[in-house]
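Here is one chain, start to finish.
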Amino acid sequence: MTPIHARIGVLGLALVAGLAAPVSATAAPVTASTAPAPTTEERRLDGDVPQEILRRSGFASVAPAFARGLDRADSYREARRLVVREGSALWRRAVDRVQGRGPARGDLSRDDDRPLYWARLGMTRELRTWEPGYRLSEGQRTALLDELERASRGQRDIRLPHARHGNQGGGKGVKRVLLTGFDPFTLDRDIRISNPSGAVALALDGTVIDTPDGPARVETAVFPVRWQDFADGAVERALRPYLPKADLFTTVSQGRVGKFDVERTNGAWRGGFPDNDNVSRTETVPVADPDSQPQWTTTTLPYGAITAADTGRFPVIDNTAVTEIPAGGTEPVVRPDGPTPGSTAREGGGGNYLSNEIAYRATLLRDRLGLHDTLPGGHVHTPVLQFAPDNADPATGTVTDPAFVRNRLDIVAQTRAIVAVAVSASGQDRS
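Its structure:
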């Protein structure tokens, strides 16, 4: 997910449990701390489009029910249990809706990723502005918000099966695939926007894909479009326990119009495009142990096999281009065939927004775990999800249309096919 790819340019929590302050024998009774205001991202919830999406998907009741639960929680421990339970329940509800389980509440198509996004924001806003009848420290509120984010994004629901036990998705020889998607973004440009990578994550979570090399079990999660979360280590924290257990991973995001890209190279640079909180960051990607940080990381996905296969109606490109400052130079230069020795990154194949960054972080983590030569992994950009031509204007358009749904379904199906090709072409049993 570049800003519809960084090539288009500007158009285009650590868990800290705070302690209540000591109260003297003569002090007044402890009261609730003042809650912070909603974020820029959360304030968009009040618009007509988010409310319509929630209503037409049956998710409008999620945040109010969560708020009622918070009001009944009379301690931090109870609030934490509620947050984890309800965050996980939201993720499972969204997955079940997309995968056709349970009642089809509302008339919005079941493949839609947007109800999860807006319902989660409703929950985080309720939690951020909640004023309980006891003192809730800033650290405790931050920890609760972090738990809610992780649970409602599927990051606590990853169940890569043991290689030698279980039946469907758990027997010997069954490949284990980890896939990530993103929230919608560029919402101030078009608040109706969906992110096909999020739809892919919901559609594939917990499913088994048949491949020529045998079945593959897929587990997924989604990530926010916020610079600070990435700087706080959200990607590494979520993926580190699972990469050593996986047979293949791919981060996925929305990229260019009309085509898929398999990104060959990822760069260590943030280009500054505003995130979903309208925050900009222009800097080297901040990582742990920056003294050993490379300027570039590379895919280990079988890009030749993926781009050669007939996976669907969109072309799939082996994207080798980067933008660099050459060694000894001062100005950025576009390199169609990848970086040159000693150069400084300014754009990876996937640009310099958060899609490039998740690819960089995931592949750097792969390498730091010593898995470069044994774990296929990298980044796939999907086509931009487009509305019908007569519904393209956000000022007058509707929240969905048949072409919009068809495009999303086709992107999801082709991503599934790309994963199948990648698993088969990798052809290794790491059990």
